Amino acid sequence: MNGPFFIAVQTSSKDDFDALGKTIAALEATPGVAQTIPSSGMMPILKLDKSVFGSGGTVTSVIVQPTTAPSDPATGALLDLIRTETAPKLLADTGTHIYVGGTQAVAEDFTTRLTAALPVFLLLVVGLGFIALMLLFHSLLIPLTAALTSLLSFAGALGVTVAVFQLGFGDSILGVTGTGPILPFLPIMVFAALFGLSMDYHVFLVSRMREEWATSQDNSLSVRLGLAGSGRVVVAAAAIMTSVFLSFVPTPIDTIKLFGVALASAVLIDAFIIRLILVPSLMTLFGKANWWVPRWLGRVLPNIRLE
């Protein structure tokens, strides 16, 4: 079923059924609206009920059913159309104020706000992570690789989540009761947890490589020995976190199940594909450039050692 909008209607005078009728007619005429409750055809019956406008006599509500699904971009476009065109026209013609609410409208507004905040959030988190790794490893390429590959893990985890909870792949196996739009705050929550874990795995892996590089100055040897020495630690840590997140899946609450699938898939992708396969491969290809830092920057950066 398509998610409805709940319209609060405030007329300029008490029990103004004419204004309510014009409001309903304007909403019905808005492109993208399937029906309204009440509809224009119900107005003769509605006029017999003096309690329609509540105790104050000026406020009532109308339910608007879109023609499109909640996840369809056209539904968000309809919300904007009602607010930017239908509402101002009604105010000018009848003095009636309309306010669009309901779960669907709240979700659209929340998504808009989060979409605007997400780039700033990603820049802040990734930027701080880049600085921390640069201080630790005295390198520019290693923190850049860590940041970019974390975004790959993030994209993969969101892809799995959308496939299951929005497109319905494997939903019956996982016991998902219904598919629909992904919660708008999920990307921020998942990325915050994933970035912290992926940085941990990256530090486990690369700190051992750096020790070997300081001794041998052989990049290929350092990558191999670092992977052999710390790979098992990353596998064990990832297996523990994956089992914790997968424990969310049997719950009957889809929201908790969604977080479990998203975080478990994020850890699996990041640890077993990104950190243990992609990162060592890239570091082998990059060679000595992994450990390069400008001389002036190297003199400024403090020496931090992990024991």
TrEMBL record:
<feature type="transmembrane region" description="Helical">
    <location>
        <begin position="225"/>
        <end position="246"/>
    </location>
</feature>
<feature type="transmembrane region" description="Helical">
    <location>
        <begin position="185"/>
        <end position="204"/>
    </location>
</feature>
<keyword id="KW-0472">Membrane</keyword>
<dbReference type="InterPro" id="IPR050545">
    <property type="entry name" value="Mycobact_MmpL"/>
</dbReference>
<dbReference type="InterPro" id="IPR004869">
    <property type="entry name" value="MMPL_dom"/>
</dbReference>
<feature type="transmembrane region" description="Helical">
    <location>
        <begin position="116"/>
        <end position="137"/>
    </location>
</feature>
<feature type="transmembrane region" description="Helical">
    <location>
        <begin position="144"/>
        <end position="165"/>
    </location>
</feature>
<keyword id="KW-1133">Transmembrane helix</keyword>
<dbReference type="Pfam" id="PF03176">
    <property type="entry name" value="MMPL"/>
</dbReference>
<feature type="domain" description="Membrane transport protein MMPL">
    <location>
        <begin position="15"/>
        <end position="294"/>
    </location>
</feature>
<feature type="transmembrane region" description="Helical">
    <location>
        <begin position="258"/>
        <end position="278"/>
    </location>
</feature>
<protein>
    <submittedName>
        <fullName>Unannotated protein</fullName>
    </submittedName>
</protein>
<keyword id="KW-1003">Cell membrane</keyword>
<dbReference type="GO" id="GO:0005886">
    <property type="term" value="C:plasma membrane"/>
</dbReference>
<keyword id="KW-0812">Transmembrane</keyword>
